[in-house]
Amino acid sequence: VKVEALDYGERKVYTVSSFNRGIADWLSRLPTVWVEGEVTELRRHDRWQSVFFTLKDPGDGACLGVTMPRGRFDALRLDLTDGERVHVYGRPELFEQRGDFRLRALTLERFGLGDHLARLERLKTKLAAEGLFAEERKRPLPRLPRRIGLVTGNDAAAKRDVLATIAARFPPANIVVAETYVQGPRAAAAVVAAMQALCELPELDVIVIARGGGSFEDLLPFSDERLVRAVAACKVPVVTAVGHEQDTPLCDLAADRRASTPTMAGKLVVPELNELLERLDRSRESVAAGVRRLVERDAGRLEHSRAALRPALVRRVEREGERLDATHERLRRAPALAVERKRAALEQAAGRLRALSPRSTLERGYAIVRRGSELVRSVAVVTPGERVDVELGDGSFGARVE
Amino acid sequence: LSEELTFEAAQKELDQIVDRLERGQAPLDEALALWQRGEELYAFCRAKLDAAHGRIEELARAAEPQS
Predict the structure, then answer these.
(1) What is d(CA B63, CA B56) in angstroms, rounded to the nearest whole number?
(2) Angle between the A157-169 and A262-269 helix axes, to the nearest 10 degrees?
(3) How far is A340 from chain B (nearest CA, A)?
(4) A341 contacts in B (CB within 8 Å)?
(5) I need a labelling partner for A395 at 20 to 30 A (CA). Which of A7, A72, A272, A379 fits?
(6) Contacts of A86 (CB under 8 A, 6+ apart)
(7) For residue A189, what pLDDT is reported?
(8) Helices A273-355, B7-23: crossing angle, 10 deg rounding
(9) Between β-strands A11-13 and A6-8, what pairing exists: parallel, antiparallel or unpaired?
(10) Nearest partner of A231 among A249, A243, A213, judged by Cα
(11) Which of A310, A321, A327 shows the shortest C-beta gap to B60?
(12) How far is CA A362 from the centre of its chain?
């Protein structure tokens, strides 16, 4: 295609038509590519040659117009509705008459299960690396929640199951239900908003997110990054019961507890009242029994001590008595002993006294001569024929002086 | 004997008296006086012990459960 410019002296000027044709020509040289986005504003008419829709980036809302020949579109039998995610294979094109830029689709596919899984796997790896699913982040559920928030669909069987289970187990439970979309493109944002609204309530201790089973696509909002992050960041513990047992949406990994069913979620958040009361009764009984046992044991010890008290005292008095008796016995003997010692000393003195008497001299052969009672100390005092007495050691006899 | 004399003090004095008498150091007159003092101390201690024993029995009887 040749695009001719008009010359106005120095200035080259294109007509709109030739400009558009030039751009269109340039665009037509770009390669055919796959583009991913959400289908919105789908317009199809039996009388129209083409089908129109807008492809929207779910991340930032960027838009791209798409046209597709109606014949090709119908042949795919996709039965597309707004909000579905698709891959479109096409080429950029300019509708010259209007200057509209758009993607001319040759074919399109629903975003396949495999692609979803790969995306989920990438998100899961990323969030896990951030530690969002770590065991140590999990908080214990309250034993007795003052208020329970329930995020669920407006007529969901899941809602009924949770409510019935809680009511049966713990009738006084205080539950606030936040009904919201649980399916479709708006579900993730709606669930996040519902959680945030519940968190504003006073005394809220736990949140349950319940949704019954559904197709893989139905449950996709519960793997949405925003929702998963909101569950992890929630200020109260979160219990999820989404889908059936085999489903594991990412919000389950971020939740503090995952319940296999809505009924199980109800069991997790409240205790059984009757069981609680029974346990309380049992605790009270065992406390009473324990106290009684303690008192009995102390009483037993006291009895024992008391029983030992009197014998101990009696033994003490008896011991003192025995000691006193022994001392008294020594005292009783002491004066006699003292006198005996004096007597012995006396005897000894007498013996020594006796040893000093003249009799022992006489026994050695000396004699005492007396005239009457007068000792004869000299031969000059006696005359022959005079009578004297001679005393020897063993006796005395009379004698006459010659 | 003094009112304030305790059993232990009396017992101690009695022991000392017996020791002295047994060693035979005291003059005879003093020994007799010591002996007399010793007998008094003995009587005092014995009375204390008897009183203690009687008090124990009395308390034990009072503490018996009334049958």
Answers:
(1) 11
(2) 30
(3) 10
(4) 24
(5) A379
(6) A36, A37, A38, A39, A55, A80, A108, A109, A110, A111
(7) 92
(8) 30
(9) antiparallel
(10) A249
(11) A310
(12) 120
Question: What is the spatial distance between Cα A250 and Cα A127, in angstroms, rounded to a whole number?
Answer: 9
Burial of A256 (0-12, 13-18, 19+ CB in 10 A): buried
8 Å CB contact between A102 and A93: yes
Q: Residues of A59-90 as b/e, b for ≥16 C-beta within 10 angstroms? A: eeeeebbbbbebeebeeeeeebeeebbbbbeb
Which amino acid does the sequence have at A338?
Answer: A
User: Quick check: B53 and A330 CB within 8 A?
Assistant: no
In Å, the largest CA–CA distance within chain A is 221
Pairing of β A63-69 and β A50-56: antiparallel
- Dihedral of CA atoms A331, A334, A335, A341 in degrees, nearest 10, equals -170
Number of H helices, E strands in chain B: 2, 0
- Segment A280-306, tens digit of pLDDT: 999 988 988 888 888 888 888 878 877
Nearest to A145 by CA among A164, A163, A172, A168: A172
Return averaged pLDDT per consecutive 10 residues of chain A, 402 residues in all.
79 90 90 92 92 89 93 85 87 91 91 75 92 93 93 86 93 93 87 95 95 84 93 95 84 93 93 90 89 84 77 84 89 79 77 66 82 86 89 87 87
Question: Which A-chain residues 341-360 have CB contacts (< 8 A) with chain B?
Answer: 341-342
Is residue A387 within 8 Å of A399, Cβ to Cβ? yes
Closest by CA position to B10, among listed A180, A210, A254, A328: A328
Please say whether the beta carbons of A87 and A108 come within 8 A. Answer: yes
At A372-385, the pLDDT tens digits run 888 888 888 888 88
- Tokens 């929630």 -> residue: A234
Q: Is A85 helix (H, G, I), strand (E, B) or coil?
A: strand
Please give the structure tokens belonging to residue A183.
Answer: 């399916």
- Shortest Cα–Cα distance, A355 to chain B (Å): 27
CB contact under 8 A, B24 and A337: yes
Say if the Cβ atoms of A331 and B52 lie within 8 Å.
no
Torsions phi, psi for A329 (to 5 deg): -60, -40
